[in-house]
Design goal:
Fructose-1,6-Bisphosphatase, Chain A, domain 1, D-Maltodextrin-Binding Protein, domain 2, 2 domains, binds magnesium ion, hydrolase, FBPtase, magnesium, fructose 1,6-bisphosphate 1-phosphatase activity
C-alpha cells in the first residue's frame, strides 16, 4: 500500500486542488505536530504525572485537569512563533491570545478545545483536541474578540485529534474529510481514510440520558420514539452509545453513522446546552457537513449562527442527515 503522509496530502491540496495556500498548509502542520505532542503526554498517564486535577478553574467555571492545562500550553507554544497566525482563542482561556510582538504575524485565527472529554482522562477512555481556523480581517494588526465572532460557514479548516486505541487526526479544508493515523514508530501522520462519508440513515443515537427530565418537549418526543423501537412510530430498533467525549462520539458517527445530541434544557436558560459554539460545535459541524451529514441547533444550521460571545454555548444535533432532519423538524412544531 502506498503511504501518503499528512505533509504529502497537504502539498497536493495546495498544488492540485488549490483548497489551501502555503500558509494554511504550514499552520495545519504545526497544529498536527502539537496534537502529536499532546498524544505522547496523554499516553504517559501516571508515568508522566499528567493525570488528576490542576486545582484551577477555567473561564467556564470548570475545574481544570492537568491535561487541560498541558494541552493548552502545547498548542499555544507551538503556534505562537510559526508566523501563520494573527491570534488564538481557547476554551481554557478567558480572552484571546495575541501573538507576541517578537514573532511575525500571519493571516489566520486559530480556535481550539485543547482537551475534549476531560472527565475521561483519569479513566483511560478516548479524549481529543478540536480546532477551527478562520481568516483574520484584512490588514489586522492586533485582532480583537470581535474579529473571532464569525459564523462557522467562514471556517477555512477544521479538525480534531482523537487519542484512543489509535491516535487519529481528522481534517477538512473544505474539500472532504480525511483521516490520518499516527505512526508512532515513524512519528508521522499517515492517510488511512479519504473522503469519509456519514450514511444518511442510522439506527444509533448518542445523548446523555441522565438529563432526560430536563429536556424540552421536542427532544423528549424524539428520544421517546427512538426508545419505542420497532413497536413505536419509527418502526425500527435503535441502539444507544455515549462516550462523553464529543470527539469520540463524533468519530464513531463519521465511521459508521449515528446521531449525536447535546440539547439545551430547562435548568439554566442563560446556558443553552453544554457545548461551545466556537471550539466544539462549529468545527464539528463543518466536518460533519463535509462528510455528507447535517448539524443544527434544533432551529437551523449551526454553521449559519452569528456568534455573539467567544465562549457562547449552543444546543447540538449532528450526524446522519435523516435523523438530524427529524429531530430538527420536531422543534419547528
Ligand atoms: O458530562 P456529560 O454530560 O456526559 O458531557 C459530555 C460532553 O462534555 C464534553 O466533555 C465537553 O468537553 P470538555 O471536556 O472540553 O469540557 C464533551 O466532549 C462531551 O460530549
Ligand atoms: Mg470539549
Ligand atoms: Mg476541553
Amino acid at each position: 500500500m502506498k503511504r501518503v503522509s499528512l505533509t504529502q496530502y497537504l502539498v497536493e491540496e495546495q498544488r492540485q486542488h488549490q483548497s489551501i495556500n502555503a500558509e494554511l498548509r504550514l499552520l495545519i502542520e504545526v497544529v498536527a505536530r502539537a496534537c502529536k505532542r499532546i498524544s505522547y503526554s496523554v499516553s504517559k498517564g501516571a508515568l508522566g504525572e499528567v493525570l488528576g486535577s490542576a486545582d484551577t478553574e477555567n473561564i467556564q467555571g470548570e475545574v481544570q485537569k492537568k491535561l487541560d492545562v498541558i494541552s493548552n500550553e502545547i498548542l499555544l507554544e507551538a503556534n505562537e512563533w510559526g508566523g501563520h497566525l494573527a491570534a488564538m482563542a481557547s476554551e481554557e482561556m478567558e480572552t484571546i491570545r495575541q501573538i507576541p510582538s517578537r514573532y511575525p504575524k500571519g493571516e489566520f485565527l486559530l480556535l481550539f478545545d485543547p482537551l475534549d472529554g476531560s472527565s475521561n482522562i483519569d479513566v483511560n477512555v478516548s479524549i481529543g483536541t478540536i480546532f477551527s481556523v478562520l481568516k483574520a480581517p484584512e490588514g489586522m494588526q492586533d485582532p480583537t474578540e470581535q474579529d473571532f465572532l464569525q459564523a462557522g460557514s467562514t471556517q477555512v479548516a477544521a479538525g480534531y485529534a482523537v487519542y484512543g486505541p489509535q491516535t487519529m487526526l481528522v481534517l477538512t479544508t473544505g474539500n472532504g474529510v480525511h483521516c490520518f493515523t499516527l505512526d508512532r514508530e515513524q512519528g508521522s501522520w499517515v492517510l488511512t481514510q479519504s473522503d469519509m462519508q456519514i450514511p444518511a440513515a442510522t439506527k444509533e443515537f448518542a445523548i446523555n440520558m441522565s438529563n432526560q427530565r430536563h429536556w424540552h418537549p421536542p427532544v423528549q418526543r424524539y428520544v421517546d420514539e427512538l426508545l419505542a423501537g420497532s413497536t413505536g412510530p419509527r418502526g425500527k430498533d435503535f441502539n444507544m452509545r455515549w462516550v462523553a467525549s464529543m470527539v469520540a462520539d463524533v468519530h464513531r458517527i463519521l465511521t459508521r453513522g449515528g446521531v449525536f445530541m447535546y440539547p439545551a434544557d430547562l435548568r439554566d436558560t442563560s446556558m443553552p446546552g453544554k457545548l461551545r459554539l466556537m471550539y466544539e460545535a462549529n468545527p464539528m459541524a463543518m466536518i460533519v457537513e463535509q462528510a455528507g451529514g447535517a448539524a443544527t441547533d434544533g432551529q437551523g444550521r449551526i454553521l449559519d449562527i452569528q456568534p455573539t460571545k467567544l465562549h457562547q454555548r449552543v444546543p447540538v444535533f449532528l450526524g446522519s442527515k435523516e435523523e438530524v432532519d427529524v429531530v430538527t423538524g420536531y422543534h419547528a412544531g
